[in-house]
Amino acid sequence: MNNRNMKRFRLFGSTEMELGERITIIMYLVTGIVVCLTGTLNVILDYSPLLIFGSYIIGLICFILYIVQLFGHLHRFSRWFMVVFFILIVAPFFWIIDGGTNGGFQYFLPTYIVAASILLRKYGAKIVFITVLLNCIIIGVMIFIEYRHPEIIKINPIRGERMFDLGFSLWLAGFCAFLMIMAVLKSYEEERKKVERLTIIDDLTQAYNRRYANTEIQEEINRVERYEISGFSIILLDLDRFKQVNDVYGHDIGDQVLIIISDIIRRGLRLSDKFIRWGGEEFIIFLAQTDLDGAELLANRFRKEVEETMMADGLFVTFSAGISHYQAGDNMDSVIKRADIGLFQSKKHGRNQVVIVD
Question: Which of 197, 224, 253 corresponds to the end of one domain?
């Protein structure tokens, strides 16, 4: 079993799965357990072999589909099959063998309706409405049949076992609803984090964007002033003659260069450091609690590594950088302004070098 499948092998699905997949897994697993327990109860009560056989067959189908879904196969098929399977087969079958309106299966019906609505929500409100309506019609038909032909409904004659069935069904239905609610909340939380990440991350280079930098640098200034800790350093770098790279090699290669350089720099940073795309081919490296000597050493290490890396066939690039360090009374603009002066001087004196402005 490969690492990807190992990550996905969790009882109710992994966080990599989308909401519909998790709901499908929960419903298959819970239904499989319920059907098999019902089949066992049917054996104890000496019900018809056909009902016993049917219980175990439906349970087996649920467990097989649970395993298939758990590893991410046939999701689209599984989504539709589950809805049809539950509405047309599981619901009527359970209604008959579990006592109809006197049995515990009725407690599961709301969870099935909610699960179907979640699974089919991507297909629009009309499909969800039709599915819920069909489910309600099937239930109405079963109630009508029970009213006209009560003899076909299998009611447990032992009151204690019937009460146990009701209590167990209610508990299991509640647990199933809890799992679905947690899956929905988890999905919305992940979507929120994804949207939040999109607002602060540059899509091409996966570096932080300028919006994030404005907030982060100001927060670090406030922290340094409040706790009187060591200041931070900023490296402002700009790729040399990058316009020529785009003009000669094309923008696709230009984008590739930005991605490679970003990967090189991110690999060499600490967790407390931040790599920011300031604009175009201009980047900021934010180094928490780092003096000028440490920042210069790191900048030159990155500069040499970039210089020695072939970005495409025969293409090598360099960058120039300016470095500044936070001083008492600085604000974000003044720190970046000094680094920008250093960057200008490094360009002026021949590029591919690092200049400190203190």
Answer: 197
- Strands (E) in 75-210, as ranges, are none
Burial zone of 87 (CB within 10 Å; 0-12 exposed, 13-18 middle, 19+ buried): buried
Please give the residue that has the higher pLDDT: either 161 or 96.
96
The yes-or-no answer on residue 189 being catalytic is no
pLDDT at 3 over 60: no
Distance, CA of 344 to chain centre: 42
Is residue 20 within 8 Å of 122, Cβ to Cβ? Answer: yes
Beta carbons of 242 and 315 less than 8 angstroms apart: no
Q: At what angle do helices 109-119 and 159-200 cross, to 10 degrees?
A: 20
The DSSP element (H or E) to which 230 belongs, if any, is none
Q: Which range of residues forms the domain containing residue 23?
A: 3-197
Question: Are residues 37 and 183 both part of a single domain?
Answer: yes
- Of 281, 282, 305, 307, the catalytic one is 281
Cβ–Cβ < 8 Å for 319, 261: yes
At 59, give phi and psi (nearest 5°): -60, -45
Pick from 42, 82, 90, 53: nearest CA to 66: 82
Q: How many of the other CB atoms lie within 10 Å of CB of 305?
A: 14
* Least confident piece of the model among 65-74, 275-284, 320-329, 349-358: 65-74
Which token pair is 48? 């018809």
| pLDDT of the residue at 275 | 96
Distance CA 358, CA 355 (A): 10
* Average pLDDT value for the chain: 83
- Does residue 252 share a domain with residue 228? yes
What is the pLDDT, as a whole number, of residue 75? Answer: 57
pTM, 2 dp? 0.59
Following CA atoms 257, 258, 259, 260 in sequence, which dihedral angle do they give, to the nearest 10 degrees?
50
Taking the alpha carbons of 291, 293, 298, 300 in that order, is the dihedral positive or negative? Answer: positive
Residue that has been written with the tokens 């009882």 in this structure = 11
Of 144, 175, 197, which residue is a domain's last?
A: 197
Rounded Cα distance between 299 and 337, Å, is 18
- The Cα 152–Cα 273 span in angstroms is 71
Total Cβ atoms within 10 A of residue 253: 16
The arithmetic mean of pLDDT across residues 188-205, rounded, is 84
